Amino acid sequence: MQRRRRSIDSYAQSTMEMEHAAAGSASKPDRLSDLPDCLLHFILSLSSMGARRLVQTSTLSRRWRHLWRAAPCLDVSSQEFQAAGGDDLEKWVRFNNFTESLVQQHRTLGLDVLRMRVIEPPKDRDGRSSKPDGNSWVHHYLARYSPAALDIHNRSPGAHVQLRCMSDGGTVLRRLTTLRLTGVMLCDGFERLLGAAGCPLLEHLELRDCLIGFEEVVASPTLKTLVVDSSNMSMKQCSLRLPRIVAPGLASFHLVLLRWHVDLWNFEMPSLGEATVRMDRGCYYNEFDLLCSLHNVTRLEISSFPPLDQVMEDYDDRDLPEFRNLTTLILDECDFTDDTPTLLEYFLQHAPNLEKLTLKNCELPPSSENMAERAMSMEMSDKHLNLKFVEIKHPENDDDVCQVIEHLMCVSKNLQRTDIVVSECRDKPWYYAALAAQGCYK
Questions:
Q1: Are 264 and 286 contacting, i.e. CB atoms less than 8 angstroms apart?
Q2: Distance CA 147, CA 229 (A)
Q3: How many CA atoms lie within 13 A of 99 on its CB side?
Q4: Which residues partner with 111 through β-bridges?
Q5: Burial 151-178 (b: 16+ CB within 10 A, else e)
Q6: Apex 50 CA angle, 94 and 92, nearest 5
Q7: Taking Cα atoms as reference points, which of 91, 110, 11 lies closest to residue 54?
Q8: Phi, psi at 289, each rounded to 5°
Q9: Taking phi first (over 0 means left), then psi (-120 to 50 degrees means alpha), and beta for anything else, what does residue 422 get?
Q10: Three-state DSSP class for 182?
Q11: Quick one: which of 266, 386, 226, 404 has its CA closest to 331?
């Protein structure tokens, strides 16, 4: 223990004689140090300083000497040791010594926030890789601190920190309300940690660039926000069964799938209020089920979604649901050239309460005649009379914007009373076409 204390003290003394400078200005009133500990801890939390800098505040004055030991937030990162001398292995050894000393001397057990920035351990002098779980300190910190908010970010490309289920840890993460994971390998059994048994208070979950090693159901009655960004199944998965997220109270959902072959999970989100979906991949599987799971949203943003006829290809015996609650729809970089009906046409027909529509850089059929023909099948529909505002963003092609306006004029009887805004286009011919559609310009 004495050795570890000296190790922490050496990090504190490495600052530029801060205590000497503080003594030289003793004649000036130190109003900050007069604040109670709770406010000083709050200030330290707002600063988002790394754990090493946090320890160095102990040299400011005697008042600050032990404040860091009870700080409610920790940001532990190997980046703080990159500026020091030595090769990567020496920096890694110093960082590991620091993490070991810190966890022994920091006294707060129930942290408000725990951030951990990890990297792949460097190879030893003989060029051999470190042991498989070279970031074992991560699990040590989780078991020690039981944070309310946890952020683990793997900064090494292609290397994923393994995060195991810690069911043997009892109440390790039972205080957790916010979980953000980037570049982490979620091993088999992790679904039990995410569920109500492991995290009964979890409300916010973000999985970015993670490898998923579990196949079971994640059931979280408390989850309110879910972000799944570029996360994929582990290549070791031999089963075709995909993870299923059951979140009856989920209000906000953000999904990004950009890789060529990425499995799409199954979602049950009956209370969903808003969703953002961005997809740009060459293979399509269960996008149909994804659209069905979004039918209760009031605000929906879809980017690079595949053509609707391909989505429906294997679901001839099923129909997409009505989007009765949808009031705001944003379609970005969607392809409307081949499928009939298009995704735009579907929402105009099956979202009766749609009020605001935004179209950004969407690809349209090659001629206005085709647009007019396709619009005839929708012309008699009275399901989209609530449309009040249309925004069009298409900076490259004037003809495309004119086609959009013509198409909307055909399919929406209410367009004469709809505000049309074409962004940054006052010098374009189709700006005046938009005004003419509303009877403001001839």
A1: yes
A2: 23
A3: 26
A4: none
A5: bbbbeeeeebbbbbbbeeeeebbebbbb
A6: 20
A7: 11
A8: -65, -35
A9: beta
A10: strand
A11: 404
* Ranges of the chain whose pLDDT falls below 50: 1, 15-22, 25, 132, 166-170, 238, 368-369, 376, 379-381, 426-427, 429-432, 439-442
Cα gap 234→211, rounded to integer Å: 5
DSSP codes joined into one string, 262-313:
-PPPEEE-TT--EEEEEE--S--SSHHHHHHHTTT-SEEEEESPPPHHHHTT
Provide the phi-psi class of 434: left if phi over 0, else alpha when psi is between -120 and 50, else beta.
alpha
146-171: per-residue pLDDT in tens?
Answer: 899 999 998 876 555 666 554 444 45
Within a 10 A sphere around the Cβ of 366, how many other Cβ atoms?
11
Taking the C-alpha atoms of residue 54 and residue 70, their distance in angstroms, rounded to an integer, is 11
Maximum CA pair distance of the chain?
86
- Is 239 within 8 Å of 213 (Cβ atoms)? no
Rounded to two decimals, the pTM is 0.82
In angstroms, rounded to a whole number, what is the distance separating the alpha carbons of residues 207 and 163?
12
By the 8 A CB rule, do 44 and 69 touch?
no
The tokens of 312 are what?
């429906």
* Crossing angle of the two packed helices 398-411 and 429-437, in degrees rounded to 10: 10
